[in-house]
Amino acid sequence: MTKIIAHRGSSKYAPENTMPAFQLAYEMGAEGIETDVQLTRDNIPVLIHDEHVKRTTNSIGYVIDYNFNDLKQLDAGSWFSNSFAGISIISLQEFLEWTIDKPLELNIELKNNKTDYKNIENIVYEMVDHYNLLERTTLSTFNPNSIMRLESLNKHISSALLTSRKRKDLVGYAKGLGANAIHIKYRLLNKFLVEQCHQEKMDLRVYTVNKFSHIMRCLSTGCDGLITDVPNKALNYRNIL
Predict the structure, then answer these.
(1) Per-residue DSSP letters for 161-199?
(2) Alpha-carbon distance 45 to 91, whole Å?
(3) Which residues have a Cβ under 8 Å from the Cβ of 27 and sit 6 or more positions away?
């Protein structure tokens, strides 16, 4: 069955990568949550998509130039709606502690394709391991070197190569890097790719899928997961099949 994964939480209804978005995704019945992790200047992993804080906070500057305590003071909710004013960026630790008692799969994207944060793989891996969440966590990245670093950390960790580019040897390429899953942009989806992945015992998940026709096509191909801003709608659509 194709699992429904909330993209940065239920980000159609609450500010992305914040506790309200994650809590809402859980309450809607999402089976997994996708989020993004970057490192602060003092090497604290935090959940934010952009390298720059301008789009989703009331400030400017790069995440890597902030200490965690200063980043915590920013308003990460007002940009979305005044009803979320004062919501803060959260740390990976806060997120994992919230997750422990919830039956959610985690897809943590390492945002290291533009800023190749030193030791981000080790830092995130060790934190996930500390909370005994390795078995239900996939670490994903667009950075092929990062996939290889993850593979050298632990051959049993679930790692996914993210890609929006078409290539004939995608499955072999990803497997050669050490990935055991592939996360593709919706336009790359086809039944043959799903079958190729499953033959190699690799999971295939699709992002970011919000339209009814796109969700239904994902479900019909038998892909392992679809990543969506509207998990409530995706769950409802899956129930009508």
Answers:
(1) EEE-S--TTHHHHHHHHT-SEEEEEGGG--HHHHHHHHH
(2) 6
(3) none
Cα-based torsion angle of the residue sequence 105, 46, 13, 53 in order, rounded to the nearest 10 degrees: -150
**Active-site residue numbers?**
7, 49
Separate counts of helices (H) and strands (E) for the chain: 9, 9
Distance separating alpha carbons of residues 153 and 124, to the nearest angstrom: 11
- Single pTM value for the model: 0.97
**Rounded-to-integer distance, Cα 194 and Cα 188, Å:** 11
Amino acid letter, 2: T
The CA distance from 104 to 112, in Å, is 24
| The two three-digit tokens of residue 155, written as one number | 């051959």
φ, ψ (nearest 5 deg) of residue 234: -60, -40
Distance between CA 13 and CA 150 in Å, rounded? 33
With bands split at pLDDT 50, 70 and 90, how would you rate the model's confidence at 234? very high
Map tokens 């994207």 to a residue: 109
**pLDDT interval class at 153 (50, 70, 90):** confident
Summarize the confidence of residues 174-182 as an average pLDDT: 96
